[in-house]
Amino acid sequence: GQRLANGCYMFKSLFTSIGEGLKYLFSGHIENIGSIVAAGGQVLSYSNELGWIQTFFFYGGFLALNLAIFNLLPFPGLDGYQLLVVLFETVFHKKIPEKVKNIISLVGVVLLFGFSIFIVFRDIVNLF
Fold this sequence. Notes:
128 residues, mainly alpha, 0% strand
């Protein structure tokens, strides 16, 4: 029973931290957003409390949950954008030309990669 309660508490904690990260992202406070480098530093602090095996599973769960939520954002290049396009085409009974969808997706992926590289680089610089 205690393990289940601990697991639920950790899940709630992870979900809350992801929500706070999204809040910072959409409010423009990117100084509070971290990459996988910053997340690794946070998880290392848990390793003293949990042990290495539990930390491994904790970190894996954190990454999986984070990627699942982030991937559902309606931003070009992510699955949430594809859902938005399907919803738009279904509601308005109009097909968006493939060329337009491809260009929008390409721009979105370039922006995502650029933002990701910026955040990772910033976190690496902050380590030193």
